[in-house]
Amino acid sequence: MPKDVIGSVMVVGGGIAGMQSALDLAESGYYVYLVEKGPSIGGVMAQLDKTFPTNDCAM
Amino acid sequence: MLTKSDIESISGEVGNFSVSLTRQPRYVDMDLCVGCGACAEKCPKKVPDGYNSDLSKRKAIYVEYAQAVPLKYAIDGDYCLKIQKDKCGNCAKVCPAGAIRYDDKPETVTLNVGSVVLAPGFKPFDPKGLDSYKYSEHKNVITSMEFERILSASGPTHGHVTRPSDGEEPTKIAWLQCVGSRDMNRCDNPYCSSVCCMYAIKEAVIAKEHQGDSLDCAVFFMDMRTHGKDFEAFYDKARNDAGVRFVRSRVHTVTEDPETKDLEMRYVTEDGKIEVEKFDMVVLSVGLEISSELVELANKLDVDLGPNRFAATDSFSPVVTSREGIYVCGAFAGPKDIPQAVVDSSAAASCAGQVLSSARNTCTKTKEKVPETPVKGEPPRLGVFVCKCGINIAGVVDVPAVVEYAKSLPFVEYASENLYSCSQDTQDGMAELIREKGLNRIVVAACTPKTHEPLFQETLINAGLNKYLFEMTNIRNHDSWVHKSTPDLATEKAKDLVRMAVQKAALITPLAEAELSVNPNGLVIGGGVAGMAAALSLAKQGYATHLIEKTAQLGGTALSLHKTWKGEDIQENVARMVKEVEDNENITVYMDTELESVDGFVGNFTSTLKGKDKETTLEYGVAIVATGALESKPTEYLYGQDPRVRTSLEMDKLFQDDDPALKEIKSAAFIQCVGSREPGRPYCSRVCCTHSVDSAIALKKRNPETDVYILYRDIRTYGERELIYKKAREAGVLFIRYGVDNKPIVSVTEGNLTVRVRDHVLGKVMEIPLDALTLATAIVPPDNSKIAQFYKVPINDTGYYVERHAKLGPSEFATDGVFLCGLAHYPKPIDESVAQAQAAASRAVTLLAREKIFTSGTIAVTSPADCSECGVCIALCPYSAPSFSTERPFPGKATINPVLCKGCGLCVASCRSGAIHLNGFDNNQILAMIDAL
After folding, report:
1. Rounded Cα distance, B350 and B622, in Å
2. What pTM did the predictor assign?
């Protein structure tokens, strides 16, 4: 472990997993770079109509 | 946020990585684009819309979908006429912001970070290569992702289910499971994709909801895998209430009627008959896989992948990759559903937080606070902003007319329209107008406060106004969206809504939020694997943690387990964890100790702990519930009457002890679902299939001559666990399926233990003599009511705790400051328990790291003079916020704790004396709105 630890994290992927990770890290006091391949975040979940088993709207 | 960016290389080590990225050209300046959509309207080039699974077209300049974040357009450089052929250029001509940049070039960006979290996701399996279903040729054979878009209101058919060949409504739809999963012959994916059974059931149920009961939906499957929380009940409902047909058969070919485009399937039923059935549509339930680009990414990052190209991890550190400082979450670490991905992603955040805790808050910036302008005693000066929401509102409602009308209303000093009220530049403009015109109450007529109120309140804060001097009315969801066909009436309704909002706004007052300091200590209840993992995670992030365990030993249920399905020795790992807990200076362990009382609220809890011979009082800010679950003791199959009949854990004890009795076993059977998936205990216990399969392999390994049978209902070796199911079959373990209404019969005659079961494949009753019978018994929760009562957290009808949100809040409770992990949430294997423990710790740290929290201003308050001391509010409140005051000046009168109050209004409605008022929704304000109507 180097002495000069950098208090930032790169999260690769802006789907539900990446977003949750980024939010947790940012709220815990770390600067987050959320890196996404596409033009916007959201991932596959944003394409889903509803989610099981509660049939909540995925968007 | 760095969009359209690819990772090129990484160097350095944990704590100090240097990452090189390429930002691909977007051709639109994100700082200038206001997301108005004028460009896309004029763009002549149509291209397949990937968001709608290519079922419809979008323009070459586009946003992926209406709610996209960031809501900034991008040009698809491969299709744009200007970029490809130097023609057109329409978008630059019409863009009001001058944001188009045709000369945009790829750009290299270097980031210095302490840690990396990988969440690159998965790729749905592409069935084009499968000859048997002719996906590319048969128009009415579609993938589940395509069907998902067809069901969606924002999809190509606006949620109307029609078949692609002729746009007709289908009357019969079939789902084919395991397409691109559990298949080594036609694709290279031997694993189970874990999610397809559930999404197929969901799609079938929703399709029936959309089209009516007459729609025939049939799901063709091998094993129905509904192993998640509340999933089995969903399956039961789909079968029994919604009338979805479930056919246990793997369909091999689909043929098309060249004229009608109907699809014919030939399949073998369970009793061996060949059936031919026609369907209008066939949905292929495609699995999850890792694309070659992700394999390349893993290579660039020097992260090891497993045999199925998922990131390699181990059960006791489920989000840690082979490279120190790089963590993984989501489907890249194995096929999984949304809650599991959310759990993993918080766990990954927790692990990154552990290595970076010395640098916490060193890279973040704190916002400067704008001093609040006092408005007390000043007459209301209202500002009304009416949003066009692009064409969402303005396409129906006459927005300029609504603005003119607003100007005529009392107290309104200023009114104007916004193209997108939520865009950053509009927000800045609004703040400027508030200051310039001296506005002291703001009304926004736009979309829903549920998503946008916090954003506008932020604008008020930036303009120096108390954030509660704000009223929002929804002229989109409640008006333009639902009254599309009657624009004149919709405009009138918008005026009504604005008038109501204005009347209320004139009466609103600034509200105060109480500031609370957060006690930085954590309490973890339960010293099993989950509790220990949670305590370690909190402690390693620098927080003093108290771990209480009611027995005399740490380790919980894991102490009775032999090996994980990946082959890791559980006792070795548990012993290592125990040592780590005992050695950690931030952790205080309380053995033989139970929770006796809980007082207080988020950030400031006080508890009494009752140990063997002493009581301790503890103050802490957050609590993590990791109280575990138990193996049920069966009452059937001669358990307790014959020593050869054991539970799974009792069998593991033999393996742990390397018991000589194992050598004597020449014939062994396992019965699955003992006490699970039955009336009275309708859930699947999730781990038992994998456990029995693993034990069966262990028996075969000791002695390949041993006959081993597994009597099952559905084998649920989900994810990569499927590989050990395959291994067991190859080792000669025999699998015999039984139905819940035709259970195996175990008997002893003249000392011989026998199981009788009807074999579905052979169609006859088998009688198997046994030396050992293992019952895969249900996992059951202990009595959780005491702790549930302490923290005001709910328990479901099967006795497990209920999390905040099934998908998005799996590791926390609705009660602030209380978190959940491990078997207390639902049966789960060790890797998932550890991940959830780390996730609970991560969620807890988001609170602890804040140091101070603010309560809401929208809470109930009592007026003691009117209170009749009846106690109805105290009895009713689900959050225990009201109590009788014990202090002067009003002893005996009801008072409401502002920290516990959620502002639901239940007490207000129940108070017979009219002594309770809800700040921000007081009677005079509500009545003013009604009067305005």
Report:
1. 16
2. 0.90
